[in-house]
Amino acid sequence: MKLLKVAGFALIALILVMGVKTLTFTLPEVVIQPQLDASEVDAQAVAGRLSKGIQFATISHMDESQFEQQAFDGFHQFLANSFPLVHQKLSLERVNGYSLLYRWQGSDAQLKPILLMSHQDVVPVDKETRDRWVHAPFSGAIADGIIWGRGAVDIKSGVLGALEAVEDLLAKGYQPQRDVYLAFGHDEEIGGDNGAAKISALLKARGLDFQFILDEGGSIVGDGIIPGMERPVALVGIAEKGYVSLRLTAKAVGGHSSMPPKHTALGVIAQAIVDLEQHPFPANMQYSRQLFDTIGPAMGGLEKAIFANMWLTEPLVERILSGSKTTNAAVRTTTAVTMAQGSSKDNVLPSESHAVVNFRIMPGETGESVKAYVESVIDNPEIEVTIEGGFAGEPSSVSKSNNDSFAMLKDAIYRVTQDENLIVAPYLVTGGTDAKHYTGLSDSIYRFAFNRFTPETLERMHGINEQIKVDDYVDVVKFFRELILGANPS
Ligand SMILES: [Zn+2]
């Protein structure tokens, strides 16, 4: 009886603690400043230029011999013609032929420069899907307040949007205090080794250290893209995952298949695949916790109580997040078995068999630590594990979300949206961006493009009918303008 009483008190105490935690789990107050430059942006003019920019099919092909030289040359000429002040007042370097690095010199060399990144290239359009586009993918059609075409959101709107902002500020006679750099790679969609990596090497050789670097990655997401979240959220990437593929190889005697051993080399590899899929990497909740600490207070009753009490509920949250492939990718190094091979004939035992497994690495881990984990899970000395050549990259550094640079970004987002319902939240980017090449050039490297996505428009990126609303594009231009002005208080 006494024990029951104690248990009862403990339960009441627990409920009380959880209740208090939930009640005090609140959003910080948002103070939204008016825009630093309240002048209108000429929507028709900027939309017209974006439309033209989309018409240059600056496609990145995996096969480098298919490089679209004419499209890039044409695009560069178009930029020079469209942004005369930028090309008059800023220095421009062509890095490795096709990547563009602009520098707008500031008045105070003591201040750290800022760097705005984007990329000129776009992904190809699948032949089979071409007739499902309402407007041809490289038409740049403008209809009913929407600009259509490949690159509308990924991300000619970033390249041209930044140039529009600078051109506009130059026309007003504005002079920044900090140096403002614009860097537009030309091969982001195939890894950025020829573009962003080369620009980064150049900037490092010059010993530059940036106040902040901003690339694409996160966006403003609404309409329940984050389950349980009804308010819009501006997701700002503070880190991105790494990439490595491992080759598993098993050797055997081979021979005829009429008298097979218990396991062929392919069977041995198959067992390793099963083991790997059954033993996912341990979860790392660090980034999800940061995200939910920020947006949790705005969620509904039960979710709010759960996220307010992560000290108790974290194992439950971890299980839920691990259950969906999207959120699973945000909490651990992922394992994707992508290729496998046995012998070349049905009646021949493989003398060698292999599989290739692709991993997206959490910050804090490395390609080597992933290999070590895989070897321990497979636990079979007959299988050789090697790092597959080709593309590989360690996870990025992790930037802070509680410093001046993050505040500059956050304030600019609020000044453009003027939306106190919006929440700006740090998160982990699970895909890859050019920003990974810039690790070491700033302690504040953020991944955010001022795009507004619904579940439907998000699908169109890299997909069919990519588009951006003219009004949203006007806000892209305003965002860059506000960001530059806010980073240079006069
Ligand atoms: Zn992109």
Give the total of domains.
Answer: 2
CATH level 4 superfamily of the largest domain: Zn peptidases
Q: Which ligands are bound?
A: zinc ion
Globally, the shape reads: globular
Instruction: Please tell me the CATH architecture of the largest domain by its name.
Output: 3-Layer(aba) Sandwich
> Structural class of the secondary elements?
alpha+beta
Low-confidence stretches: none
Rg on CA atoms, Å: 26 Å
What is the CATH class designation of the largest domain? Answer: Alpha Beta
Helix content: 25-40%
> How many E-type strands?
17
Distance separating the two termini? 72 Å
User: Can you count the helices?
Assistant: 15
CATH topology heading of the largest domain: Aminopeptidase
Main pleated sheet = 8 strands, mixed
Condensed summary:
This protein is of the alpha+beta class and 490 residues long. It contains 15 helices and 17 strands.
Notable traits:
490 residues, alpha+beta, Aminopeptidase, Alpha-Beta Plaits, 8-stranded mixed beta sheet, 15 helices, 17 strands, binds zinc ion
